[in-house]
Amino acid sequence: MITVSVVTTASDLEQLVGEINQASWDDTNEMDPYDVAALSAYLARQDNLFVVCHEIRHNARTLLGIASARFQLKPYANERWLYVDEVDVCADQRRKGAGKAMMQKLIDMARADGCEEVWLGADKDNQAANALYRSLDPDDVSHVMGYTYETAA
C-alpha cells in the first residue's frame, strides 16, 4: 500500500531526515543532504508544504519519495495558488506510482485550500517527469525558459 503523508513540525523529523539521507537518489534528483534544523525551519513557515510517500508492506515502511510546495498569494485579486518546488522519487523506487500519488495529494490540498491553480516546472529533457505531469491531465503546458541567478559569493 502506498501512503502520502503531510509532514509537520510535530512529525518525527529525525527519523524522516535519516530515511531521506539513506535513500537512493541520483542526478535527476539534485539532492543535497537534509538536516533536522533546516527541515524544521522550512516547515515552520506557514505556507510551506512537505509530503512524504511510503510503501507499507508486511509492517515494513519504505521511503518512495518526497515533495515540497508552497502556497502563494498573487499581488492582485487575492488569488491563491500552489507552486510545486520539488517532486523527488527515490532512484530505486520508481515506477510504483509515488510521483503521481504525491502530485495528486498536492493538487487535492490546493483544491481544499481554495487555490485557483497549481503550477510547476520541469526540465524539458526530463522525460519521466514530463510524462508524469502530462498523465495528470494539465489544463496548460507552457514552454517556459528558466533562469537562475546565484547570489552566493
Tell me what you see in this structure.
The protein has a single domain, classed as Aminopeptidase, CATH 3.40.630. The chain is built from four helices and five strands, in the order E-H-H-E-E-E-H-E-H. It has helices spanning 13-22, 36-44, 98-112, 127-135, and strands at 2-6, 48-57, 60-73, 80-89, 117-120. It has a five-stranded mixed sheet, sandwiched between helices. The mean pLDDT is 91.
Task: Looking at this protein, list some descriptive labels.
single chain, 153 residues, alpha+beta, Aminopeptidase, 5-stranded mixed sheet, 4 helices, 5 strands, 28% strand, globular
Q: What's the gist of this structure?
A:
With 153 residues, this protein is of the alpha+beta class. Helices cover 28% and strands 28% of the residues. The chain has one domain: Aminopeptidase.
The general outline is globular
Distance between the termini: 46 Å
Helix content estimate = 25-40%
The CATH homologous superfamily is called Gcn5-related N-acetyltransferase (GNAT)
**Rg estimate, integer Å:** 16 Å
- By DSSP, the count of extended strands is 5
Number of helices: 4
CATH topology: Aminopeptidase
Would you identify the CATH architecture?
A: 3-Layer(aba) Sandwich
